[in-house]
Amino acid sequence: MSWDLILSNSLYTAVSANAIAYMLVALGLNVHFGYTGLLNFGQAGFAAVGAYSLSIPISRYDWPWPFALLFLVFASIVLALLLGIPTLRLRADYLAIVTIAIAEIIRLFLNSVRFTWLTGGNDGLQGFTRFMENANPFPANGITVWAQKIDGYRLWLMLTGWVLLTVVAVAVYLLMRSPWGRVLKSIREDEDAARSLGKNVFAYKMQSLILGGFIGSLGGMWLVLDKQSSQPQDFSTTFTFFAYTIIILGGIARAKGPIIGTMIFLFLIQFVDITLQQATKTTPSDPNPILPTWLVDQNNFSQVRFIVAGLALAILVVVRPQGIFGDKREQAFDVR
Amino acid sequence: MSANTVNYSPTPGSRKEDAILVADNVRRAFGGLVAVDVEHVEIPRNKITALIGPNGAGKTTFFNLLTGFDTPDTGHTVFNGSPINEMPAHKVARIGMIRTFQLTKALSRMTVIENMRLGAAHQKGESFWRGFFAPLWRQQESEITTKAEELLARFNLAHMRDELAGGLSGGQRKLLEMARALMAEPEMVMLDEPMAGVNPALKQSLLEHIKALRTEGRTVLFVEHDMDMVREISDWVIVMAEGRIIAEGTPDDIGANQAVVDAYLGAHHDVDLGGAQ
To answer: What is the pLDDT of residues B206-257, one digit of tens each?
Structure first.
């Protein structure tokens, strides 16, 4: 067992460009669910729109990347309007139903054979990351931190990603401390009360949906920049539920929640995964793995990480229901 | 109090010389059930008007129709010169008519002071883009906070300033909701059962607070079942039954009104149904 490798790799996973993508997606969902009380189950749809509004224009139509970024802003706003206009006047459950459906429609469309000419279908799209590769100031073979090797492109994505994430997180933090954020929280608590005090609840919900959706799209963009390939299966509903797990872990409606939540979540999964990988490994010189094969072996350890992660989550929710940063007092008055 | 004596005609739909709210032919049906069918009603300015009636009389529905929380099937309502029948609730609140709810709506997971601040109208920082830049709204925020603290002191909630509103007792929530409504300086305050679930000691202080609203020049319309309270503070009483307005008058007139007694107790309450021997 190489503990150096296990720990350095798990820690890297928790702060990598991939982690930044999860943080952004969860941050957007926190704006929806944590602050405004909007039950958005289609955050993966926003992420998919972010990913493909970068990859389709660049891969298929050779757009310069700034135009693709503008298109991302436009597309995420259009999706938010599409989701919001019919549902935001209705009760919270309707938004949940519509968002989960639209997110699946988006994924199935991206996956469909008929539109492979546009979306690349099941194989996805590649070759849209050249602008980031060309801007990369680091040597291609990158650096080695502890026992973890990080290539130059990933290092560059990490650096720019953390800058982007900081800007977005600070902006959300400032907004939520402002009277604007106060109106969002009042809508989460009781939208009729907000209405009775002269607040245009529909407009605020829409702004929240647009803001959180846009941040989620940035997350989707970062996910595919890291993978260098955008594929529909990355945007299944599991992605949304991971984002929910993350914000519950970190503490709902806390600015740091999505960031710390992602770190814990990804660290835990990776740690379990790579530890089991090491513990079930056999080599010609040492045919006996550390763990007995009747319990777990090389072929099935990868499922165990989710079992362990789920168990850890369950324990956390029982022991600390408000999440890592949540306020225990608030939990007591959760009336929904 | 001579300033509050009224001499309107005690008939349903009577004219008031200075009405702040006038509603005509307001009708709302839920399927076959006509919940509200009000031909004409006027609410006098700077008076405390009580809206009473037996359960199911349509009082709360009428309240919802007036405040934009529900839309009437037909009807025309004018508040302070502006037609409000098609106006959404938040706009009705902005032009100066703020309501409270039968089931108190304190914003549980926000502090008492944040509840109060939310109530203030015309906040610059409530716009998305200005929200980012604290210098644009900080000055106004501190003015709002000062005002909120004054109101909290007046409503005996100053010691709860930084507690979460969910931790308040039922009576304190009623006080908070009323104080929060006042943050927007409404011309008219609509209270839906302000005394429901309030203990007798607090009741007295709530009564004083409601009277103080009139002293400040505001108009109050409230729904209430507690007849002692109605008699004590209202200048004018409107009685609803089965969706219609069946009587109007001073509290004294109403006590003597046969139609009201019938509505509450049934028209045949004094007939011996057991039959004459």
So the answer is: 999 999 999 999 999 999 888 888 888 999 999 999 999 999 999 988 888 8
Residue B156: pLDDT over 60: yes
**Rounded Cα gap, residues B43 and A132, in angstroms:** 68
For B123, nearest residue in chain A (alpha carbons) = A179
pLDDT above 70 covers what percent of chain B? 94
**Which token pair is B210?**
């409601």
The Cα–Cα gap between A33 and A29 comes to 6
Model pTM score: 0.92
What gap in Å lies between CA A277 and CA A1, rounded to an integer?
10
Comparing C-alpha atoms, which of A9, A16, A12, A21 is closest to residue A159? A16
Residue of higher predicted confidence among A305 and A145: A145
pLDDT at B276 over 60: no
Q: Taking CB atoms and an 8 Å cutoff, what residues of chain A touch B180?
A: 197
Q: Please, what is the average pLDDT of chain B?
A: 90
Give chain B positions within 8 Å (CB) of A189.
Answer: 107-110
Tell me the shortest Cα–Cα distance from B244 to chain A, in angstroms.
Answer: 25
Helices (H), B120-274: 128-131, 134-154, 170-182, 200-215, 227-233, 251-255, 258-265
- Alpha-carbon distances of A263 from A15, A19, A257, A267, A269, rounded to whole Å: 7, 7, 10, 6, 10
Residue among A319, A323, A282, A276 nearest A300 (CA)? A276
pLDDT, one tens digit per residue, over A23-53 is 999 999 999 999 999 999 999 999 999 999 9
Residues of A in contact with B106 (CB under 8 A): 193
- Classify B55 as helix, strand or coil: coil
Query: Residue B140's closest chain A neighbor by CA?
Result: A179
Burial of A265 (0-12, 13-18, 19+ CB in 10 A): buried
Helix ranges, A56-151 (H): 61, 65-87, 92-111, 116-119, 130-135
Q: Which one is predicted more confidently, A289 or A85? A: A85
